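Troubleshooting log. The previous structure file for this entry was overwritten by mistake, so regenerating from the original sequence record. Sequence copied from the archived sheet and checked twice against the printout by T.R.
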Amino acid sequence: MSKKIFDILPPGYKSLKEKKEERKGIKERMREKKTRLEKKEQRPIAKKPYFVWKLAAIFVVLFLLFLIINSQAYSAITLQPFQEEKIFEGEKAIVSSQIESVNIEEGIMPGQFFEIEKTGSREFAATGLSQEEGRAKGTITIYNNYEESINLKATTRFLSSTEGKYFQMPDRVYLPGAHQEGGKSVPGTAEVEVIAMEAGEKYNIGPATFSLPGLVGSSLYYQVYAESDSPMTGGFSNQVKEISEEDIERAKESLKDQLDRQACQELEASVGEDFIFLSSAIFERTIETNCSGAVAEKKDSFHCQGTANITVLAFKKSLLRDLSRDIILDDVSASQKIIEDLLIIDNLNAYPNQAEEEMRLDFDISVAVYDDINKGKLKGAIKGKNEEEIKEIIFRSFSEVEKVKIKFWPFWIKSVPDNVERIEINIQLKK
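Regenerated output below.
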């Protein structure tokens, strides 16, 4: 009897055919999955709405910015108050070098002495005129054909045959008579110096023959004569400059004025901008001058020099303003305020007292004042109000205000914030 053999297979055992079928199924499923994926990729994908998110973000940022700006909103109210001019004439103060601090109640201020020495010199033109003259001189030979000698007195005149000019002898002259030589009569001679009787170039004549006018009418007139061999010289007449008394006086006064002006300018500069220098506050002014020329001295110009010594009592501007401010405050009400830029001190005059080393000061004051505005009260009245309401409140309740200007920030704000700390009040004054 034949035996039957049965193979016993382990669990999960698959035959070759089954394995092939299984692999075939896996491949089919993979192809289907791939196909689905390819189709899915080909389908249009719906885009996410990014622009919506962007718009939303921008809106949020703008809204937050709006809230921030609104939280910082403010209003600026500029007020121009009515101004009143005050004038104080003939005010007085004492400036003393003997005190060191100001006493506003008694109107006394400390002062300080400043001094300077200034030297200078100048050349001045002479304006005086004088006639400078010279008489012509020369030598002549006198001839005497008369037998007797002659004595000619000083100042004997001689008249030239050309141009008819008179000359005279300064000294007495002995003129011998004629004598015989070799059977001939030889005249006696004398050589003398003569001087023209008038000044001027017209007496500078050439060689000439001279007669003696004093012998006219006598026999000697034709016996006695003179001749010159050389021309007369030295005659002239010129107008020349000389120093007059008026020239010296004018020069000294001019130099004094110059030195005084220069000394005051330099002294004022040395005092400085903090002090007030007044020409009427000069305690000592000595100016000495001297000139090199003398009256009637023949010169075209002359030199003068001098020295100026000046001492002045000056005082600080700030002290005078403090004193003026106190004078003003004594006159105005407690609610009024001074406009410092419009406080002007004018017509200053000093009256020195050298013995006391002090001076009285007279001056005028002009100033503008205005009524003070209660800013706290105003802020409380206008908070939360619009422009028209603000103006109505200000002009109704604050009569001291002449003009008002309102500014809101940001521009879309149309009313004043409720927070008074966000309200700014400015005072604008007329200049």
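The longest strand covers residues 336-353. Archived copy saved in two places this time.
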